[in-house]
Amino acid sequence: MSNKDTAPHDDKITRKPFPNSKKIYLQGQIHPQIKVAMREIYLSDTKNSISGKSRPNEPITVYDSSGPYTDSSKEISVHKGLERIREQWILERGDVEQLDNFSSEYCRERLQDKSLNHMRFKHLKMPLRAKKGQHVTQLHYAKKGIITPEMEYIAIRENQRIEEITSIRKQHKGEHFGAAIPERITPEFVRSEVARGRAVIPSNINHPESEPMILGRNFLVKINANIGNSATTSSIEEEVEKAVWACRWGADNIMDLSTGKNIHETREWIIRNSPVPVGTVPIYQALEKANGVAEDLNWEIFRDTLIEQAEQGVDYFTIHAGVLLRYIPMTVKRVTGIVSRGGSIMAKWCLAHHKESFLYTHFEGICEILKSYDVAISLGDGLRPGSIADANDEAQFAELETLGELTQIARKHDVQCFIEGPGHVPMHMIKENIEKQIEVCDEAPFYTLGPLTTDIAPGYDHITSGIGAAMIGWYGCAMLCYVTPKEHLGLPNKEDVRVGVITYKIAAHAADLAKGHPGAQHRDNALSMARFEFRWQDQFNLGLDPERALEYHDETLPADGAKVAHFCSMCGPKFCSMKISQEVRDFVAENDIVDKGLIAKGMKEKSKEFKKMGSEVYL
Amino acid sequence: MSNKDTAPHDDKITRKPFPNSKKIYLQGQIHPQIKVAMREIYLSDTKNSISGKSRPNEPITVYDSSGPYTDSSKEISVHKGLERIREQWILERGDVEQLDNFSSEYCRERLQDKSLNHMRFKHLKMPLRAKKGQHVTQLHYAKKGIITPEMEYIAIRENQRIEEITSIRKQHKGEHFGAAIPERITPEFVRSEVARGRAVIPSNINHPESEPMILGRNFLVKINANIGNSATTSSIEEEVEKAVWACRWGADNIMDLSTGKNIHETREWIIRNSPVPVGTVPIYQALEKANGVAEDLNWEIFRDTLIEQAEQGVDYFTIHAGVLLRYIPMTVKRVTGIVSRGGSIMAKWCLAHHKESFLYTHFEGICEILKSYDVAISLGDGLRPGSIADANDEAQFAELETLGELTQIARKHDVQCFIEGPGHVPMHMIKENIEKQIEVCDEAPFYTLGPLTTDIAPGYDHITSGIGAAMIGWYGCAMLCYVTPKEHLGLPNKEDVRVGVITYKIAAHAADLAKGHPGAQHRDNALSMARFEFRWQDQFNLGLDPERALEYHDETLPADGAKVAHFCSMCGPKFCSMKISQEVRDFVAENDIVDKGLIAKGMKEKSKEFKKMGSEVYL
């Protein structure tokens, strides 16, 4: 037994709050019991270098996916799991019941296996399930006109307190792609988007620890971080730490893609300690149960796996139900064939049995399970392109048509549904891809992996894909699955997760700016003002990765004095454009020559005076 | 005297060839004396895992900016400088003369200063200059219908031997933005684009060491790497090494932005050892000569600086001649004022003197100097936006109008001219920016810094800007000025230069794919085929940074066996989609069921057989 297979240690889990930041909780109005977690960043004063006067700067509130891990007032133990903030909301709806035991056979077997005791999460609760005949999904409530606490939570969260800050929202002179984001996100708007099927709130009733978040093109673009061990590497503790680390840096959502041993136990630890929704690809575990032989998979194994994971609290399942027998030969002439793991497993199954996969033939049965727990379905793109040469080809778009059909079936069952997309797509073909998805899948949210815009940079695929991700986010993609620098090469470590997440936060935020989300630009403005005023610490703290920014700054100018210096190492004091620019601004402002017409008059009189001021006013 | 100020050492300069690669030289047809340097990457054989047969793979030829540094057959000494490959071409045109001494007063002073001996480049040659009345620019020749050796070199280089490789060029179903790239780049096409002013070949007659390259939207997108020391840090040796390092990783061009002491000597070392064109911002050095007091700058100092640098061999000058007095008040209400160093220096000068800058009033004089050496002019965007809030504003576009006027003046003088652009621009405003530039500046090549698509990620601005760079490259931008992770925080070190260059190579290449450049996609295809066939070493070697890819792979699977393994650490052997996909392909191919119509028949018969093959065929 290796030390991979033991319970994680509390002291290994990152708990540091962000610098100069405080966790705040905003109360709901429709549902006063909800407390929306946000991060407030405190700023230093602006000092006028001529008058010497100071002016305070209002704190900036930002969206915060890090959960209680950055709240130093909360006690956290990975062994107990996070606070179950949604439990009362769920119970108060009166449509669920607590079971006496887990419904999955496999789950019960694992629980009885004493050899697993040392790695087991101890504080297991019995699962909830819909009462007979009930659909407990957010889509069901939305259709009925009910604004749930989850919906109000999301509305407050998405707005990021924009009323409290000076927002210079960039006018939308550029291209816009059909998104219709209101000036203010209301709970009713959230409800209507969910009811329309244009947005999804992944929120399993058995994952009450998660803070509600929404996927949809009229909301902030979300990002997903994949974690999970594989047969060749990594431990439970590492995976829990990666999950916490991912949320800390901004993952709105994580997927546990474990394929190694003990993935049932690993997943329990991750879900109980995850403040964000957790997705999985159940076919991976089902394949483990079939000893890795794709042909031996069947509906019974898969069904039991769905129930096992639904009762643990997985918030959405990726299911590759669109891989049809007749599409498989379309992949043969590709440069890279089938690159989706789930897709290739199902293709193999289909060929071996010469029939359509049980995912497709039992799709209604899948929906029956999912609506009893509010597990959302992420329709997997098993035939996505794995190279530039294969982008937007016949196989990809044929499968997409089938995903469109399945979307309608899921919606009929009140199952929340979104669609996965590629992969590898050159820039000029990205728009065609999402336009087709929006059309074929009736505006169901799109969730893409990148896409990578070139194949030639292994080691840098967070960047090749970050480009495509930003673009497709702008075009309306709801969630971006991150890619780390290790893509195609190895399993990401903690630092890779950090770089992958930050890269994708950048892509998502760039997309939010371009979409004109009302809660996006205030952070850019605050940071740029800090930059212009040489408030170095504020510049670091307002950034996506304050620690990295500080570290880079200190590499060249480590002295504390440099944090208040009115220049930096790049240009040095004499060449600082910001400094000169400030002088120009002060001069023009003081001489009241903002109006161009006045410049001739104002200037002539004052040019000598300005000359006297010289370049020394700021030193 | 610190060790910053000494001559560089030969043994410190990177000279390692790329793995499995050879430098090759292609001969010209019109000009048989030219030898176009390219890199040939050798690939391993493809092995059919069922039949055991091997099939060789043709080597791939790629564009190579690394110069002789990656040619192990060349002897190089930084003290002698690189081979002067263009010298004969220049002399044979018969329109230049060698001077007896340097024309710049400052240069002569420096040469007489014995205290600088220890840091001086020893093998100085006397400069060339146009004979009286001659214009020695590529634009002049192009207008006259002359195809120069530089033009043929470029045509061969841009094609990347596409006739020798199997190219699956992606059909252009997506959006295209007016670029008109032929299926094959001919010398005549190069000439016509230069004559039209739509392309520029930076090629100072005093920098014969440089390998010709072209900037224009109908060619491969180029990238620039900024190097140069500042008052607070770095040495001559470091800067030369950064330059070599930058070219190695793919910089098509470098800018020496030194602002510290001894920038004359530093520049000499850089130019003599640079296989790519070198640009500068002469106002930086002029300001040093004016002791850092912007108001004390004047045309005489500037003029002497232009001549000093032109005779050293600088290939293009950034000149901020578009900062007019009436534009300055437009920047006052900005969030970040003026962020260009050159722009702020000139703004300060204009305000102090209350008149238009000498760059504007002496623009014809500048052109007179430039056409005597074929220094191209890069019209600086002194009023570019420094934040999302300031993008595409009145000040920026007002200056652009002036740059358009100056473009026409430069062209009148046969001076090659291109235009600098921002900066910080959200995604939805990038297209407006370049469309305006193309219109106002009559299709002169655009050269942008990024643009950064958000302000909120200090420490990751290579990525925030890489997104914008890829997009604007696709829209037609000719050259992308890199941004390193240290942007806004500190001066880049060698590793930052590497990451910045690779990020920008990605952006440029993604743009080339999207533009449909005929020489772009073959490398993606070759790499993806290698990936699909588990030719790990080929995958690394075909990538932009082979060493980094290998290093990442080895972090999880260091064993040599893993380099031939038919799986990787991400999925492990059982879950490998590529492996399963290969099985599917082999099965479908062997059973001749590529035609969908045949699948029912073919499958039914063979499904049992496939089942027997199981998942073990590849292990």
From TrEMBL, chains A, B:
Q: Which PANTHER family does the record cross-reference, listed alphabetically?
A: PHOSPHOMETHYLPYRIMIDINE SYNTHASE, CHLOROPLASTIC, THIAMINE BIOSYNTHESIS PROTEIN THIC
Q: List ligand-binding residues for substrate.
A: N226, M255, Y284, H320, S340, R341, G342, D381, G382, L383, R384, E420, Y447
Q: What is this protein called?
A: Phosphomethylpyrimidine synthase
Concerning its family, UniProt says:
Belongs to the ThiC family.
- Keyword annotations from UniProtKB, A to Z: 4Fe-4S, Iron, Iron-sulfur, Lyase, Metal-binding, S-adenosyl-L-methionine, Thiamine biosynthesis, Zinc
Q: According to the UniProt record, where is the region Disordered?
A: 1-20, 48-68
Q: Which residues bind [4Fe-4S] cluster?
A: C568, C571, C576
Annotated catalysed reactions: 5-amino-1-(5-phospho-beta-D-ribosyl)imidazole + S-adenosyl-L-methionine = 4-amino-2-methyl-5-(phosphooxymethyl)pyrimidine + CO + 5'-deoxyadenosine + formate + L-methionine + 3 H(+)
- Keyword Lyase listed? The answer is yes
Q: Which GO terms describe its biological process?
A: thiamine biosynthetic process; thiamine diphosphate biosynthetic process
Q: In which pathway does it act?
A: Cofactor biosynthesis; thiamine diphosphate biosynthesis
The residues that the entry says bind Zn(2+) are H424, H488
Locate the compositionally biased regions of type Basic and acidic residues: 1-14
What cofactor does this protein call for?
Answer: [4Fe-4S] cluster
Q: What does this protein do?
A: Catalyzes the synthesis of the hydroxymethylpyrimidine phosphate (HMP-P) moiety of thiamine from aminoimidazole ribotide (AIR) in a radical S-adenosyl-L-methionine (SAM)-dependent reaction.
One GO cellular component term: cytosol
Known EC number: 4.1.99.17
Is Zinc there in the keyword field?
yes
| Comment on bound cofactor | Binds 1 [4Fe-4S] cluster per subunit. The cluster is coordinated with 3 cysteines and an exchangeable S-adenosyl-L-methionine.
Which Pfam families does the UniProt entry name for this protein?
ThiC-associated (PF13667), ThiC_Rad_SAM (PF01964)
A molecular function (GO) held by this record is: phosphomethylpyrimidine synthase activity
The gene it comes from is: thiC
Can you name the source organism? Arachidicoccus soli
